[in-house]
Amino acid sequence: xxxxxxxxxxxxxxxxxxxxxxxxxxxxxxxxxxxxxxxxxxxxxxxxxxxxxxxxxxxxxxxxxxxxxxxxxxxxxxxxxxxx
Length: 84
Description:
Structural class: mainly alpha
Strand content: under 5%
Helix content: 55-70%
Shape: elongated
Distance between the termini: 19 Å
Largest sheet: none
Number of strands: 0
Order of helices and strands: HH
Oligomer: single chain
């Protein structure tokens, strides 16, 4: 189901970003070649997860923002779940 793919992509991206932030902190605290490699790997993982999220969103085919709705720095996420 598309909505489950969107949810998974969002959580996977969030997890990857969290790992990247931790790798950045480790590199700052203990600069080393291993820490730089870990940060590079974490950065590449964020890029991969971002691409997956973009593809999942693009494939859903749903309209995401009405043209007459002003943007007020609010991101609405439609998981395709109908409220009772």
